[in-house]
Amino acid sequence: MENVIIIGTGCAGYTAAIYTARANLAPLMLSGTQPGGQLTTTTEVENFPGFPEGVMGPDMMMNMQKQAEKFGARIQYATVEGITKETDGTFTVKAGGETLKSKTIIIATGAAPRHLGLPNEKDLIGRGLTSCATCDGAFYRDVPVAVIGGGDSACEEAGFLTRFASKVYLIHRRDELRASKIMAERALDNPKIEPVWNSGVTEYLTNDKGEMRAITLKNLVDGSESELEVECVFVAIGHVPNSSFVSGLVDLDENGYILQTPGRTSTKTAGLYAAGDVADHFYRQAITAAGQGCAAALEAERYLAEME
């Protein structure tokens, strides 16, 4: 019987592991399909406190893993298929063909950004293709970039990028934005944002270094194609929270994000906590995920103390 099983090994999961391990709870972490989470697909991280010179995303996650393991956290490379709560209040977790038992669960499985599914997409992530303007916008100063999407997130990303880029192309499949009126007006009134209507991206074009140099656009009305030179593409067509395996034990919003108790990381099931991007569709930052991981660990620790 485990005290704590942490599902996910991103910023939220590792922080929860560090805190629960230091509380002598010997947490077991289940890595999922992407050990280290989304930051393992990024290059330099400049906005995480404590790294004035920046840090490479994979290096940062390896350091978090080492810190968690130093205090006694254990990592098992397995994907969770389902969780059930037993009549005695404990949990059964099915993962990688095994059945595990735990008194508490912290879900820190994150959310995967939606992409277009183009052939060289995975190779370009971190090399001119990203889903986070806050994370990567500052790397593209005084060069043209593109944002794909037409909702509030796309408009917000485009507006943020005007602080750095020389030009921001806002590419949308329709002839008007889906965003709220105020967000749409704000984007369209910005002189550095140029909308590209009724268009979809059909190809990412690279330079000799394998980095983004341009995109191929297809006009969805007349079928014509054109090439647009940009040095980065920010995909803002939503995220998919990794929450399907926990159905029934938590409430989800309309997009699949786990609903937490307001101001807490607890869920509707006692002893079950959610931290990071699997529950947070608003901030989606490494530092906020880490903060929620800390909060979930403290809540789990107090829950276990009350059970004794």
Provide structural commentary.
- By secondary structure, the chain is an alpha/beta fold.
- Helix content is 24%, strand content 28%.
- The protein is built from 7 helices and 19 strands.
- A hairpin with a 2-residue loop joins strand 7 and strand 8.
- The mean pLDDT is 94.
Quick summary:
The protein has 308 residues and is an alpha/beta fold.
> What number is the mean pLDDT?
94
Shape: elongated
Q: Main sheet, how many strands, which sense, barrel?
A: 7 strands, mixed
| Rg, Å, rounded | 21 Å
State which percent range the strand residues make up: 25-35%
Coarse structural class: alpha/beta
- Contiguous low-pLDDT stretches (5 residues minimum) are none
Number of strands: 19
Percent range for helical residues?
10-25%
* Element-level helix/strand string: EHEEEHEEEEEHEHEHEHEEEEEEEH
Summed up, the helix count is: 7
Oligomer: single chain
Distance between the termini: 14 Å
Helices, strands, pairings?
Elements: E1 2-7, H1 11-22, E2 28-30, E3 44-45, E4 55-56, H2 57-70, E5 74-76, E6 80-85, E7 91-95, E8 98-107, E9 111-113, H3 121-124, E10 129-130, H4 133-136, E11 144-148, H5 152-161, E12 167-171, H6 181-188, E13 193-196, E14 199-206, E15 212-219, E16 225-229, E17 232-235, E18 239-241, E19 272-274, H7 286-307
Parallel strand pairs: 1-2, 1-8, 2-5, 8-19, 10-17, 11-12, 11-17, 12-13
Antiparallel strand pairs: 3-4, 6-7, 7-8, 9-18, 14-15, 15-16
Helix pairs in contact: 1-2, 1-7, 5-6
